[in-house]
Design goal:
Two copies of one chain form a homodimer. Chain A has about 475 residues and is of the alpha+beta class. Chain A folds into four domains: about 100 residues, Uridine Diphospho-n-acetylenolpyruvylglucosamine Reductase, domain 2, CATH 3.30.43.10; about 120 residues, Uridine Diphospho-n-acetylenolpyruvylglucosamine Reductase, domain 3, CATH 3.30.465; about 120 residues, Alpha-Beta Plaits; about 110 residues, 2-Layer Sandwich (Alpha-Beta Plaits). Helices cover about 35% and strands about 20% of the residues of chain A. The first copy, chain A, is built from 18 helices and 18 strands. In chain A, the strands form four sheets. In chain A, strands 15-12-14-13-17-18-16 form a seven-stranded antiparallel sheet, with helices on both faces. The first copy, chain A, has a five-stranded antiparallel sheet with strand order 5-6-10-8-9. A four-stranded mixed sheet of chain A has the order 1-2-4-3. In chain A, strand 17 and strand 18 form a beta hairpin. In chain A, helix 9 packs antiparallel against helix 15 and helix 15 packs antiparallel against helix 16. Chain A is globular. Chains A, B: It comes from Pseudonocardia acidicola.
C-alpha cells in the first residue's frame, strides 16, 4: 500500500527520544511531530494487502552495545520493538506498531570477515545479499541463498529463513547459519554456535532464532557458511503440456545425480507475463508455446566445463524422455534475463494487479494436486490464481487476484487448508508476519501454538518484540 | 562401567507397574523385586566413566498413543522418564534415574515409508541405521548420516544430533530431519514439519527437539531426507608429517570443488592402534610411516565412473602438492576395512584402556592449535591423549588416558575451555548427557544457560523428562 494509507504514528514521549539519542546520537533517531515524512519510510515492507503503519520513532544503532541499550530502554518502558533490515519482506513482519520503535539496521551493514580457511562469512544484519555476493566472489566463494531480491538484508533473511531458487541444491538460510549474536528483549547479549559445522551442546538457539521474524531476539551478527563458486553454468528450459508432467519429472531429475542448482516451474501465464514485462523472446515456436501449460527451468553448474556439457546433454535427453516437448539450452544473456525475470515475478504480479502473493509449501510430489485444488478454489470464488515456484522444494508461489477482502480471506484460508491437508505448511520462505497471522493461528494445531507461545514467553515475557507478528 | 557397579533401582510402587501394564500389556513392562537382572540391561549406554544405574521400571510401548498414555501417567505421578533407543550413546543420556522409568523404543522399530517421489523415509525411533540403509539401498537411495555405529537407532540419532564421517558432504542429523512426531511431557502429541524441504511458518520445533537429548519431548516418528546413492567410490590415504599440514590441506581440498564424501584425520598412534586391532596392513612403507604424524583419509564418490577416476587423480596430485608424503589409493577391501577400523576407534580406545572419549568441535582451521593445546594440557597433568576426527568439520575425537578422577576432571575442563577459547563447543556430535553436564553448566555463558532452562520449562514444567541430563 502506498503512503496515502499511512496512519500517523502515536505522539512519542519526548523523553524516549532523548534517551535514544543519548544511546546512538541524535542524528540516528527519528521521531516527533515534525518527522512524519521520514517515519513513513519505515511504515511498510513489500507485503501486499496490509496498511502501512509509521512507528512512534526510528532508531539506527551502530553497534551491538547500542542495540542492547535500546532494548533495555524499551523493556523498561514497555515499548514495542520491530527490527528492520532493508524492508524487502513480503509478509509485513517489518511493519511496526504505532506506539513502538523501529530498530533499523541500516548502519550495521559491515561484512566483518570473509574467512577463507573455515569458509564462513561473519556479517552484520544490515549487509545485503548483493554486498555479500561481491565480497565472496573475490575469494572464489559464494553464499548460496538467492531469494530473488539481492537488496534483501542478511538480518531479514535470518528472520524469515529465506529460501529461493538455489535451495534445491544448498538448502535455505537455516542450513547456512552456523552462529549468531543476538540481543534478548532484556538487553542481554547471547552468542550461539560459531564457525562450526556441527554441535551437540545444548538446545540449538541458533536454529530457534532463525525464522522467528523478530519476535524472540534481535540478530546483531551472523556467521554464514560459504561454498566454492563454480565457474561454469548452463540453463535449460523445458516446456511441458501440464504441471503433473513437470512434477513427475522432478524426483527423476534429482535421482539422476545431476544435482541441479535450480529447478523451477513457471506456469504458462506467468511465463507470458514475465517475458512480456522484460521484453524477452526465448525463441520458442508458437506451436510449442500454445500446447505448453508449464515450463521447467533447470540450471546446472560445475567446476569442470566438460562435465557441465555432458550433464546438459544428459539432462536434455532425460527431459524429453520425461515428456518435455523440447529442451532449450538458453544462451547466457537470455538465461540471465529469464532468471532475472523469474526473480522479479513478484513485481510483475504486483504490476498486473495481484492483491496477494502466497508461498505455500507442500511435499514436492503433491504440487500438481495442490495446484489443481488451488485452481478449483479460485474458480469457486470467481477469482483467479497463477504462479511459479521452487519445484524441487514443493514451494508454490501463487499470485491471487481477488479485490473483495471478504472473498479473499475465504479463498486464502481454503488455499492454506488445502496445502496443509496435503502435508504442507502456510509458508515455505516468506514467513507468517502480519499478513498470514490470522490464518496461521486459526489453522495450526493448538498444541503447536501453545508450545510456540510458551517459547515466546521464555524469550520475551513482557512481549515487547514485534507484537502482532506471528502470534498474538 | 560394568554391571558390578549397578546400583539397584528403587523399589517401584506396584500400582505404577499395574497402570503401565494396562497401557502396553504386562509382557512389555519390567519392574519389581524379581526383575533386577533384566533392569540392569537398561542401566547404561556406552559412556565411559559413569556408573550404570538401573531404573525403577522399563516400559516398551508399541505406538504413539501408548507413549502418550505413559507420559500422562508419569506426569501424574511425577516419575522421571528416560527414553532409550539401542543404547549406543557415548554421553550417558540414556542412563535413567533409580526412581524413574525407561521408555524403550525397541518395539517401535518399523520403517513406515520409503517415499521415492519426495525422497524421504518415515521411521519409528527404534529403527537402526543398518535397517534404514538396507531399506533405502533397495531404491537406489541412501540416508547419509554414518556416526560409526550402524546399530544406533534413529531416535537416538535425533536426540544427540548425530554426525559422523559423511557430515562434511551432507551435514549432520539436523540437516536431514524434515519433520517429527513427538510426545510432550503432558502426553500431548505434537507434529512438526513434514515431507518438506523448507518452511517459514512459526518457530522451528523440529530443530529445537533435535539434539535435546530426551529432555524436551519423546520422538515417536521422524521424516528423514534421502539422497541418490552414488555407485562409484574411492578411498585415498595421505600421510603427512604433522597435523598442521593436514589442517592446512583441508580447506584447499574443499575449495577445489572435488566435494569429498569423507575427510578424516587419524593421528599416527590411533592409526597404529586401529590397524593393529583389525590386523590391517595398508602397505605403507616403514620409512613413510615413521615420519608420519597424521593421516588424511579422503573418500570420493560419483554417479559416473570416469569422473571418479579423474577426481582421484586430481586429488592425489593435490594432496602431494599440499605436502603429503604420498597418496595411496586403497583397494576396495582395504578401504572398507580401514573405514570400519576408523569407525571402531571408540572400541579400540576402550580396549586399550581410555578412561574417557571427548569430541570437542572447533572451527576446522583451529584444529592444529587445539591439538597442540590438548597435548600440552595432558602433559602438564602427566596424562595422555590421542585421537582422530572429522577434519572437514573440526570435530576432534580424543581418547583420554588418566585414571585419577580428580586429575581427569581438571584435564577435561581445561580441554573444553581450550576448545571454547578457540571458538568451539564441548561436543560436536556425542552430546552433553550426564558425562559432560558439569563441564557444560560450569563453562557455558549463564545467559545461554538461563535461556535453555526457560525453554526446558516451556516444554516440561514438572521436569520429568531425563532429569539430570544436560541441565540440572
Amino acid at each position: 500500500m502506498g503512503s496515502a494509507a499511512d496512519a500517523a504514528g502515536s505522539a512519542v514521549d519526548p523523553t524516549v527520544l532523548e534517551a535514544l539519542a543519548a544511546v546512538v546520537g541524535a542524528e540516528h533517531v527519528t521521531g516527533g511531530a515534525t518527522a512524519a515524512a521520514e517515519l513513513s519510510d519505515y511504515a511498510h515492507d513489500e507485503a501486499l494487502s496490509i496498511a502501512a503503519q509509521p512507528p512512534a520513532a526510528v532508531v539506527r544503532p551502530g553497534s551491538t552495545a547500542e542495540v542492547s541499550a535500546i532494548l533495555r530502554l524499551a523493556a523498561g518502558r514497555r515499548l514495542p520493538v520491530t527490527a528492520r533490515g532493508t524492508g524487502t519482506g513480503l509478509s509485513g513482519a517489518a511493519i511496526p506498531r504505532p506506539d513502538g520503535l523501529v530498530v533499523s539496521f541500516e548502519r550495521m551493514n559491515r561484512i566483518l570477515e570473509i574467512d577463507t580457511e573455515n569458509h564462513v562469512a561473519v556479517v552484520q544484519p544490515g549487509v545485503t545479499l548483493a554486498q555479500l555476493d561481491e565480497a565472496t566472489a573475490a575469494h572464489g566463494l559464494s553464499y548460496p541463498v538467492y531469494p530473488g531480491e539481492n537488496g534483501a538484508s542478511l538480518g531479514g533473511n535470518v528472520a524469515t529463513n529465506a529460501g529461493g531458487m538455489r535451495a534445491v541444491r544448498y538448502g535455505v538460510t537455516r542450513q547456512q547459519v552456523q552462529g549468531l549474536e543476538a540481543v534478548l528483549p532484556t538487553g542481554e547479549v547471547v552468542r550461539t554456535g560459531g564457525k562450526l559445522a556441527k554441535a551437540s551442546t545444548g538446545y540449538d538457539l541458533t536454529q530457534l532464532i532463525i525464522g522467528s521474524e523478530g519476535t524472540l531476539a534481535l540478530v546483531t551478527e551472523a556467521t554464514l557458511r560459504l561454498y566454492p563458486r563454480h565457474p561454469h553454468q548452463a540453463t535449460v528450459l523445458a516446456p511441458f503440456t501440464g504441471v503433473d508432467e513437470v512434477a513427475a519429472a522432478v524426483p527423476k531429475i534429482v535421482a539422476s545425480g545431476i544435482g541441479p542448482l535450480v529447478l523451477e516451474y513457471i506456469d504458462a501465464l506467468t511465463m507470458a507475463a514475465i517475458t512480456q514485462a522484460q521484453e524477452l523472446d526465448l525463441g520458442i515456436c508458437e506451436q510449442v508455446r500454445e500446447s505448453t501449460q508449464a515450463y521447467l527451468l533447470v540450471m546446472l553448474d560445475n567446476a569442470v566445463a566438460d562435465r557441465l556439457d555432458e550433464d546438459v546433454q544428459r539432462l536434455g535427453e532425460h527431459l524429453v524422455s520425461l515428456g518435455a516437448a523440447d529442451a532449450y539450452v538458453l544462451p547466457g544473456p537470455a538465461a540471465r534475463r529469464l532468471v532475472d525475470a523469474r526473480e522479479k515475478a513478484f513485481w510483475t504480479a504486483k504490476a498486473i494487479g495481484a492483491q496477494e502473493v502466497v508461498d505455500v509449501v507442500v511435499p514436492r510430489a503433491a504440487m500438481p494436486e495442490f495446484l489443481r485444488r488451488a485452481r478449483d478454489i479460485a474458480e469457486r470464488h470467481g477469482s483467479f490464481v497463477a504462479g511459479c515456484g521452487h519445484a524441487g522444494d514443493g514451494n508454490v508461489h501463487l499470485s491471487v487476484f481477488e479485490t473483495d477482502p471478504q472473498v479473499r480471506y475465504r479463498l486464502l484460508r481454503e488455499l492454506f487448508e488445502a496445502g496443509m491437508k496435503l502435508g504442507g505448511l502456510i509458508s515455505g520462505e516468506h514467513g507468517v508476519g502480519r499478513t498470514k497471522k490470522r490464518y496461521f493461528t486459526e489453522l495450526t494445531d493448538p498444541v503447536n501454538l501453545d508450545l510456540m507461545r510458551r517459547i515466546k514467553h521464555a524469550f520475551d515475557p513482557a512481549g515487547i518484540l514485534n507484537p502482532g507478528v506471528l502470534l498474538d
